[in-house]
Amino acid sequence: MHVPDAVLTPAVAAATGALGVTGLWWGLKSLESRLGERTTVLMGTMSAFVFAAQMVNFPVGPLPISGHLLGGVLSAVMLGPWAGAVVIAAVLIVQCLLFGDGGLTALGANFVNMGLIGAVGGYAIYAPIRRAIGGRGGVLIGAMVAAWFSVLLASGAFALELAFSIGWTEFIRILTWMALVHAGIGLGEALITGLVLRFILLTRPDLVYQSEAETLADGRLRGWGQVVLAGLGIAVAIGVFLAPFASEHPDGLEFVGEKLGFLKGEAPAILPVPIPDYQVAKLFDAGHVKLATALAGLVGTVVVFTVGLGLARVFSRRTPDGIAPDAA
Amino acid sequence: MRLDFLERYSEGDGPLHRLDARLKLVVTIVYVVAVVATPIGWWRFLAAEGLLLAFLVGISGIPPGMLFRRWLGFFVLIGFLALVVAQSHPRRGELGMAALMLAILAKNSLAFLATLTLVNVTPFRTLLIAMRGLGMPALLVSTLQFMYRYLHVLTQELDRMVTARRARTFRRSGKLDWGLLTGLIGLLFLRSFERGERVHAAMLSRGWDGTIRTLDGPNGPAR
Fold first, then answer.
1. Counting C-beta atoms within 10 Å of the first and last residue's C-beta, which end of chain A has fewer, N or C?
2. Residue B220 pairs with which residues in a beta bridge?
3. Contacts of residue B184 in chain A, CB cutoff 8 Å?
4. What is the DSSP string of A285-310?
5. Considering only CA atoms, which of B108, B143, B161, B115 is closest in space to residue B6?
6. Distance in angstroms (rounded) separating the CA atoms of residues A252 and A243
7. Range(s) of the domain holding residue A67
């Protein structure tokens, strides 16, 4: 899922780079004010942990592929949203330099997709669900749903960056295919995140991050910032699945793009393009793919939620909260 | 799961190894940006960039076979993406699918190989000091220094845990199931977290105030 170098245009790379640097700077500042000199040690070891955890390969049944944990939501749930983003940034920098995984010029885009959208956005989805359900079950189900959505949102963000780079003509098709592929990856991520969290919740539930807002006795949110963030997270999550439907006309998004001025000065205006829109060979009818995406999104959410409920049952069956049974 | 292979040649003593790490980092970034910004169709320019990199790899003393093997793994990943991007590229009609794919593959390969060359002529810890020297925030650099230190410790810890699990579970295939694997990750989290707390306490008792001090300069370890 790492964006390589020469896929995004320099303008898009620069814009996401600026956004990424701002986000990282803000994240580091807020962490430093909370943790002080502890930041370095905690973030360093946790980044190394996520890096090592990504090396554990999960076999996918009889298929010749394997998946691994991405860890954005897991680290955000355990350490807080900005700490999660900083951890992802550190992992991305090391992967980029040592493995060549993800381009040097696409570092900003990768951080925006996986750190800002994956960890901070994922936390924005997780926090209200956790609050609504409550207890350790709330942590588990919230994190699983957030993990599932964060992967989809990151893939949607990549499709958007690609559209800004190579034009909007194929945007819907790329978005639907990206969402479809990442629905599978997201299910894996949700399952791994859920199982790892269940283990931690059974052994050391005290390690899960508690934001200051949640420690208020009356259970109200402290500031409007969190409400806005939570609402935004959920709205965008729903938007991913509605986006393909929002433009039932093939050129609906182009229309919006023209209105907003995205396409002004875009390649089609300057260069004559011999192939008209949507004449490129299609594997399936666009309508079917849209339906499949929306269905995958719906089914996926229900599946993740149900599996989360199933996994969370272990908490009620055992001893009451506070006494952590030995799971090892 | 040893990570030694990542920068095996970085401790050598070639002409590129002796250069200032800040210079190498800046040159690499400029090179990658130049490759990425090369317009599609400027084949001679791209070829010249490729020759420049080949020359640098040649004098660096890095075995080209190692770079080639690493590149093969990268090629599979990037090939798929090149196919997707080339298919919907706005200039597909003008340049043709093959040329577009070739351009995307070539640019990405050059950028990838340039990055690998950099880390194989510069130890990563020296690279981090160079980043600090170029104005990267101290907090980020020290976090990366810590991460790099514990990367090897934690992957080896994971290795030992996997071996211990294997020794205690009978499996027909070599694969462990998801329950066991997630247990490993959960346990690794707890161990990493607790190790971090112990290390932090030990560092506090030795006067840790938030800044890492080393004797290394941007030219590598003090000699």
1. C
2. B217
3. 56
4. -HHHHHHHHHHHHHHHHHHHHHHHHH
5. B115
6. 11
7. 5-269+278-317
Burial class (CB in 10 A: 0-12, 13-18, 19+), A111: buried
Tell me the backbone φ, ψ of residue B205, rounded to 5 degrees.
-70, -15
B120 touches chain A (CB under 8 A): no
Cα Rg of chain A (Å, integer): 21
Spatial separation of the C-alpha atoms in residues A260 and A204, rounded to whole Å: 50
Q: Rounding to the nearest 10 degrees, give the CA dihedral for residues A301, A306, A312, A316.
A: 140
- The amino acid sitting at B119 is V
State the smallest CA–CA distance between residue A32 and chain B in angstroms: 8
Q: For A85, how many CA atoms within 13 A lie in the half-sphere containing its CB?
A: 27
- For residue A63, being part of any structural domain is answered with yes
**Residue A326 covered by a domain:** no
pTM of the model: 0.83
Are B182 and A96 a contacting pair at CB < 8 A? no
Domain ranges of chain B: 4-122, 136-204
Closest Cα partner for B219 from B9, B64, B21, B58?
B21
Please measure the distance between the N-terminal and C-terminal CA atoms of chain A and give it in whole angstroms.
33
Burial of B178 (0-12, 13-18, 19+ CB in 10 A): middle
Helix, strand, or coil (residue A270):
helix
Chain B's closest residue to A271, CA to CA, is B91
- CB-based contact, B79 to chain A, within 8 Å: no
pLDDT of chain A along its 328 residues, tens only? 688 887 888 889 999 999 999 999 999 988 888 888 888 888 999 999 999 998 888 877 667 677 788 889 999 999 889 999 999 999 999 999 888 888 888 899 999 999 999 899 899 888 888 888 878 888 999 999 999 989 988 888 888 888 888 877 777 777 887 888 888 888 989 999 999 999 999 988 888 888 655 544 444 444 555 566 666 666 666 665 655 555 444 444 444 444 444 444 333 333 333 334 433 344 445 566 667 777 777 777 788 888 888 888 887 655 545 444 444 4
Token representation of residue B155: 């992957």
Q: Is residue A323 part of a domain?
A: no
CATH number at residue A181: 1.10.1760.20
Question: Does A310 contact chain B (CB < 8 Å)?
Answer: no
Pick among B189, B192, B213 to test the A interface (most A CBs inside 10 A): B189
Which ranges constitute the DSSP H helices of chain A?
10-35, 38-53, 72-79, 81-94, 107-110, 122-133, 135-166, 171-203, 224-246, 252-260, 267-270, 286-317
Say if A234 falls within a structural domain. Answer: yes
| Backbone phi and psi for residue A70, each to the nearest 5 degrees, phi listed first | -95, -40
Q: Which residue in A196, A203, A209 sits closest to A324, CA to CA?
A: A203
B178-204 vs A171-203: helix axis angle to the nearest 10? 70
